[in-house]
Amino acid sequence: KTKQAGIMNFFTKK
Amino acid sequence: MFEARLGQATILKKILDAIKDLLNEATFDCSDSGIQLQAMDNSHVSLVSLTLRSDGFDKFRCDRNLSMGMNLGSMAKILKCANNEDNVTMKAQDNADTVTIMFESANQEKVSDYEMKLMNLDQEHLGIPETDFSCVVRMPAMEFARICRDLAQFSESVVICCTKEGVKFSASGDVGTANIKLAQTGSVDKEEEAVIIEMQEPVTLTFACRYLNAFTKATPLSTQVQLSMCADVPLVVEYAIKDLGHIRYYLAPKIED
Predict the structure, then answer these.
(1) At a CB cut-off of 8 Å and minimum separation 6, what does B3 contact?
(2) Quick check: A14 and B126 CB within 8 A?
């Protein structure tokens, strides 16, 4: 079973 | 003063078609180097990054950096009023709260202009780290669109597995399992028909079909698409916009629960 990761887990806020 | 002119409204129509399913509104950041847009979709799973270089425009002037928040539904209504071959010019004064979009027919006999209200969007800009991708696949954009459409019938997710032999797209659901394998092309007459794989390490990643299908709305912009993959980082789906720039979509992977 997989779950969707969020994009902000990978990119940092500028 | 900001002014940007493109020879053909069709390019702007295609760009809008490529982003409006993912984004309701977006900020167009204008500077003397061109126009940039970066925005996450509503569910914060994907990120759209659009770059249009100033030298790709027929005319480009931007005296001061300008951020124009636009409702993309409104922009779509305006672009629907243009013929594909019309010239299109976007104009705004410094600190303006509206943008004017003007269409001129090739023979200059019909000129129309539309003034659109700008929005103040509080959008977060994300820093995208440099990544050494394990696999980079270049393939015909139409083929990628076809694969995403076909596999979406079988599952919400598609598994992309890239090895030196080729790239495999798989989907598994109630109906059964679907696998589509593409081998690297040997010699092709036309560059746009090639499948090219640059692999450092094999990689297998799972992604949501609905986002991949949304990205393929950019297919009319480019003959080829580039997929860049690395374990546990977002997929990058890139479409070049000839002589003007590119659109990149970043999609967070599905991970083991």
Answers:
(1) B59, B60, B61, B62, B89, B90, B91
(2) yes
Q: CB contact, 8 Å: B159 with chain A?
A: no
Contact B164, B197 (CB under 8 A): yes
- B207, B155 contact by CB (below 8 A): no
H-assigned helices in A1-14: none
Spell out which residues of chain B touch residue A11, defining contact as CB-CB under 8 Å: 47, 126-129, 234, 250
DSSP state of B72: H
Which among B46, B127, B255 is the nearest to A7, CB-wise? Answer: B46
- Please tell me which of the candidates A4, A12, A14 has its beta carbon nearest to residue B45: A4
Reported as a single tens digit per residue, the pLDDT across B69-117 is 999 999 999 999 999 999 999 999 988 899 999 999 989 899 999 999 9
- CB of B140 within 8 A of CB of B107? no
Overall average pLDDT of the B236-251 stretch = 98
Structure tokens of B175?
A: 């109906």
Residues of chain A contacting residue B256, judged by C-beta atoms under 8 Å apart: 1-2
pLDDT of residue B123 exceeding 90, the answer is no
- Local confidence band at B165 (pLDDT 50, 70, 90 cut-offs): confident
Residue A8: list chain B partners with CB under 8 A: 40, 44, 126
Report the distance separating Cα B29 and Cα B180, nearest Å: 39
